[in-house]
Specification:
Elements lengths: L2 H12 L8 E10 L12 E9 L2 E7 L15 E5 L6 E8 L11 E9 H7 L1 E7 L5 E12 L5 E10 L12 E8 L5 E6 L14 E4 H5 L7 E7 L7 E8 L1 H4 L8 E4 L3 H6 L8 E11 L3 H6 L3 E9 L23 H13 L7 E2 L1 E4 L1 E2 L8 E2 L2 E3 L8 E2 H12 L4 E2 L6 H15 L6 E9 L6 H11 L4 E7 L31 E5 L9 H8 L2 H11 L19
Parallel strand pairs: 17-19, 17-25, 25-26, 26-27
Antiparallel strand pairs: 1-4, 1-8, 2-3, 2-5, 5-6, 7-8, 9-12, 9-16, 10-11, 10-13, 13-14, 15-16, 18-23, 19-22, 20-24, 21-22
Helix pairs in contact: 1-7, 7-11, 9-10
Length: 557
């Protein structure tokens, strides 16, 4: 089969399609009546949200862990796209996570609830019992509340402190934290934010936090907000200090550098104590409205996605001439490398104006007469001096051209590839403009052999405009690769330096082998828009408006 036809076959096999998002929906979670598994302590609950895709449950996000609570109200908000034409199946899993670690693997499973997004949206508030192992109904309930996300994408940054709070502890001072609730139209309260606990301090200064105006007040600056101050206790029975009511309109008084203050009142003390004034003063030190730019703001402002692919040519893939090899070129069926490449590349190439993609190989022995650019075990997979392949089809053709000329060897080292792309990304970082963001797709069949160097390279790359996607091809055990993803904790370098941002997404291709690999692209690219926005927002780099860049840019067909 001709190379172009194989490329078209791969694209057709993927079933690539565009499904317009009807709306974005915010989901909030509350649990009631969680049973105590340990008679000596209460559970430390955390909820995972999963979506079903081709018969498999894929984790989307998870809440924070709330210590010692049988009826937690989580402050984490899940934002999901709502597709009217699709049955979007959701699964909420409740775990008791020990205070010694935040990992799910060693946590106790307390129950799960399955539903569809349509059910939640139609009811706005869905309450169902949690099912234990074996589908037995527990006495615990989970309530999911849905709210459509409006077009108001502004965020507000708030900084609170307090002074002279009531002391609720006998042998030490109070350990205060602040909760802010929004008053809904039906007079119910919705938790907006819970601060951290400041230990042993009657004059706490809480960390500055950001929340959307939609979450805070639904865009209504006069909407009442109930704010409550608590004294934290390790047993979960927090002591009530007091409360006050505010509006965002009042909070805006702190936008010009002035402080806004409220008396924290305990109604019981107000009635019982004759000389009672208050239980302390809560102070808003800063209120700043932040325009949170979207991914499309940067793309429409001229930011280009620079897509690079790196392919594993180690001997563990098998002889390409053998039909059992992962690199075997079937005359009618693309191999897993091609499927993964086309799935991700087809989407990324739409955001690159010249559509010239650098393509690397690693792990092979290169014949002397093969023209290439060498960096340790890294080399161009196309035998020319042109910096890049013309589109994803060009990468496929280059892959097929060089494959018969290489001797598959080893080792599986990917740190040089990350460092190579990071070198280009570091030059972009100094421009102070949102012009180029780099995505590196690494396709490999096994666990890497330079894990320490790779961790170091990823930590350094987390400071740059760069994201890394690693797809595991074949049936190898990829469990050690999960640590690079950072989902179960912050990835650190061998020296202990943490990643500034979570920039790595790892998935095994076999999870999508029996479904449409278009789902693979959805999964591995889902985090990229937020990674792009987070990088530029953290750097204070705003997107260009259309008039600031060349409107006559020409795009490759």
């Amino acid at each position: 089969m001709k190379r172009g036809n194989i490329y078209e076959s791969a694209a057709n096999t993927l079933g690539l399609f565009n499904s317009p998002c009807l709306a974005k929906v915010e989901l909030r979670v509350t649990c009631k009546g969680i049973s105590d598994r340990d008679a000596l302590s209460k559970p430390d609950p955390c909820v995972l949200i999963k979506m079903k895709s081709h018969g498999q449950w894929l984790e989307v996000d998870r809440t924070e862990v709330i210590r010692s609570s049988i009826s937690p109200t989580f402050s984490k908000v899940f934002t999901v796209d709502f597709y009217f034409e699709e049955v979007q199946r959701l699964r909420y899993e409740l775990y008791d996570i020990s205070s010694n670690h935040n990992g799910i693997k060693e946590a106790d499973f307390l129950g799960a609830m399955e539903c569809t997004l349509g059910q939640i949206v139609s009811q706005r508030k869905l309450t169902k019992p949690l099912l234990k192992q074996g589908s037995t109904v527990s006495k615990s309930f989970i309530m999911v509340t849905a709210e459509e996300l409006t077009g108001n994408d502004d965020y507000v940054e708030l900084s609170f402190s307090a002074r002279k709070l009531d002391d609720k502890d006998f042998f030490s001072k109070s350990d205060p934290f602040l909760e802010i609730f929004r008053m809904n139209d039906d007079d119910t309260l919705q938790l907006v934010h819970r601060t951290e606990t400041v230990m042993n301090n009657l004059n706490p200064v809480w960390k500055t936090f950001k929340t959307s105006l939609n979450s805070l007040c639904s865009g209504d600056h006069d909407r009442p907000l109930k704010c409550t101050v608590w004294d934290w206790d390790s047993n979960g029975k927090h002591d009530y200090i007091g409360e006050y009511q505010a509006t965002f309109k009042e909070m805006r008084g702190a936008m010009d550098g002035r402080q806004v203050q409220w008396e924290c009142i305990n109604p019981k003390y107000q009635i019982k104590k004759k000389n009672y004034k208050n239980s302390g003063i809560v102070i808003l030190n800063q209120c700043k409205i932040i325009k949170m730019h979207s991914f499309l703001d940067y793309i429409m402002g001229g930011c280009q996605i620079q897509f690079t692919v790196a392919i594993d040519f180690t001997a563990s893939n098998g002889d390409p001439h053998n039909s059992c090899s992962l690199h075997y070129i079937h005359p009618y069926q693309p191999n897993e490398y091609l499927k993964a490449l086309v799935a991700v590349g087809e989407i990324c190439q739409d955001y690159d104006s010249d559509k010239m993609f650098p393509a690397f190989g690693f792990g092979a022995q290169i014949p002397p007469d093969f023209k290439c650019y060498c960096v340790c075990v890294l080399f161009w997979v196309f035998p020319t001096y042109v910096y890049g392949c013309a589109g994803i089809q060009g990468v496929v053709e280059a892959y097929q051209t060089c494959l018969p000329k290489l001797q598959l060897y080893g080792p599986t080292n990917i740190a040089p590839i990350i460092q190579k792309v990071a070198s280009s990304a570091s030059q972009e970082m100094h421009t102070k403009e949102a012009m180029q963001y780099f995505i590196l797709l690494i396709l490999t069949d096994g666990v890497i052999t330079d894990m320490a160097d790779t961790r170091e390279a990823i930590v350094q790359a987390s400071h740059l405009p760069m994201s890394i996607i690693i797809v595991g091809v074949g049936s190898a055990d990829f469990s050690d690769m999960q640590m690079l993803d950072g989902d179960d904790g912050i990835l650190r370098s061998p020296k202990g330096e943490p990643c500034l941002r979570d920039i790595v997404q790892f998935v095994p291709f076999r999870n999508f082998k029996h479904g449409s690999p278009a789902e693979l692209a959805k999964t591995v690219l889902a985090e990229v828009p937020n990674q792009v926005v987070d990088y530029y927002n953290n750097k204070g780099i705003k997107p260009k408006v259309p008039s600031e860049f060349e409107s006559s840019r020409t795009f490759a067909p």
